[in-house]
Amino acid sequence: MNIIAIANHKGGCGKTTTAINLSASFSREGKRVLLIDLDPQGHATIGLNVTEDKFQKNMYDVLSNLTNVGLNDIIIPVSENLDLAPSNVLLSAIEQQLSGITDREKRLAGNIDNLKREYDFIIIDCPPSLGILTINALIACSEVIIPIETSFFSLHGIMKLLETINVVEEKSKYVIKYKALVTMYDRRKKFDQEVVKNIKDYFKEKCFDTVIRNTVKLKECASFGCPITQYDTSSYGFEDYINLSNEVLQTWQMPLYRKEETRFEEAVPAEVWDEVIFSFWAPDAKMVQLAGDFNNWSPEENINLENKGNGLWEKKLILKPGEYQYKYVVDGNWRVDPNNPLKVCDNSGYENSLLKLNQEN
Hints:
By secondary structure, the protein is an alpha/beta fold.
């Protein structure tokens, strides 16, 4: 599961537009997506035509220390493969309410860890500030997309965001990948061309090749409460966000389990009879274990995954051909493999991940 924060403390740079339309583009490709609206303005919620009469609880209740509401309790299905965790103006009070609370910056990450539903991508729409909400998003995420519009002030203040990302990395002890995304680009204007060159020179390889062009269709679809994928598939906006989703998939796809020589980005299930390498991404975990048919479902039998750094845990097992049900045990919590689509229910009705090793291998 990839968790991507859309962040820039400058307003009007296309954060919400990107959050909505990237989420919709992923879901169109068959990816299961949860969009978390972490902006008290609630623009992502409004932009998906989810009005306040459609929900009673929102992200304020999830992050508040005064309620027992979890992320699972507020999720609203929006369309096929796309769910929303809504927000409204109440969320603006959360920083004051959490003042002095221990681990207040980890409340979003904790709720994501407790999700019962499985997603390929979680997209977080951040507010235009570097307060406690954005810090929660940065701690919870594995990647950050920084939308930058083609204006005179586009790069002004970006260093502050990058410094904040570095601070979070130092405290959390894992790497946050980030890339800039050029938005609102008008190729007819020489000024826009110069700004794009400056942005790409500044970020170098940490800038997406995809550029989001300025088009009225993106504004129109927002006013109608739907993403560009449902509004106009012949528009530049549709083309650009589909290209962005494909570029993100190629750049930041996470591993399931892999052979030793396979690169991190290219990790795929290793269906070999002699050696299987299981991988699990859990940057905040203190211990990750493996339990399944191969060890009588006992995580105590020394099947502990090794912390490889950057949040990646790994374990090699020698297995005979056949089918094996299994789960990961993360700090005592049983988890199915979020990246393995093969799942079965056991005799008690619990869902397990399923590994198939081909006899011919």
